[in-house]
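Here is the promised in-class demo. Please do not try to memorize the tokens; focus on the logic of going from shape to residues.
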């Protein structure tokens, strides 16, 4: 699959959003969540960093494999006709 298809970017975006959510939860949990002192900018920074790293990983994975999606292990297999 090529990174120049809509199907690739749809799958990569889904993975990146999931990673961003996981990074946000990690940053909240790492500080023993206190909603009165929650630093939203820090949480957003972790989420944004996770998003960017996930997209870069998807692009790198496409460069080294011929799987049908942005995954090294073909975990996100996309039908070939979506591109």
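The designed amino acids, position by position:
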């Amino acid at each position: 699959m090529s990174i120049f298809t809509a199907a690739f970017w749809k799958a990569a975006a889904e993975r990146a959003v999931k990673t961003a959510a996981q990074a946000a939860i990690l940053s909240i949990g790492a500080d023993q969540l206190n909603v009165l002192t929650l630093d939203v900018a820090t949480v957003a920074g972790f989420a944004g960093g996770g998003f960017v790293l996930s997209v870069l990983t998807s692009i790198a994975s496409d460069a080294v494999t011929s799987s049908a999606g942005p995954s090294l292990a073909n975990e996100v297999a996309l039908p070939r006709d979506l591109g």
